[in-house]
Amino acid sequence: METKEYLQMMREIKDCTFATLDGDGRPATRIIDVMLADEDGLYFLTARGKEFYSQLTEQWFVSVTGLTKNWEMLTLRGKVKQVPQEMLTPIFEANPSMNGVYPGDSRNILEVFCLYEGQGEYFNLSKTPIYRETFFLGHPAGHKKGYEVTDACISCGVCAGLCPQQCIDAGDPYTIRQENCLHCGLCAENCPTEAIRRR
């Protein structure tokens, strides 16, 4: 799928976990509504008096995770920016329940943010084998996850026999189908020649 489709899925989940770091460098999470999604990113808001607002304006970075009813997890980590308050009008139109939470002019305490650049992952646990795909928003520096088999592989087959998703294919060297890998590390822990490493 394309990035815009994954962003729309996060909008449909709506209630996602947003993570930042607090003043002591510890993780801080909260459930926040994804208010809008378009090709430019995910839009959400918070009040200026909240710790979440302070963390966003100090770090300009957030990690967002949501889970569909079909056990499809979506994660997007990246940069955020504040956008003009004029965005409150389309947000309140698309999310009418907000009118009860912040009626009238009280909505002016809210600030709108856009997650505009980052790396995401779609992870479907309902398929066998599982399926995962990396997607990108904007032009971030990519970060590879999971494991790979190096040339130190002796093609003994230990890793393939242990893999819970059976996603390691025979060869010289063996290869891991990244789209089906759990990233559990069982293959790396049991490789007799330590030929498997993190990507």
TrEMBL record:
Keywords: 4Fe-4S, Iron, Iron-sulfur, Metal-binding. SUPFAM superfamilies: 4Fe-4S ferredoxins, FMN-binding split barrel. Its cofactor is [4Fe-4S] cluster. InterPro entries: 4Fe4S_Fe-S-bd, 4Fe4S_Fe_S_CS, PSI_iron-sulfur_center, Pyridox_Oxase_N, Split_barrel_FMN-bd. Gene3D superfamilies: 3.30.70.20, Electron Transport, Fmn-binding Protein, Chain A. The keyword Iron-sulfur applies. The keyword Iron-sulfur applies. Residues 144-169, 172-199 form the 4Fe-4S ferredoxin-type domain. It comes from the Bacteria. Transmembrane segments: none annotated. PROSITE patterns: 4FE4S_FER_1, 4FE4S_FER_2. Ferredoxins are iron-sulfur proteins that transfer electrons in a wide variety of metabolic reactions. This is Ferredoxin. It comes from Christensenella tenuis.
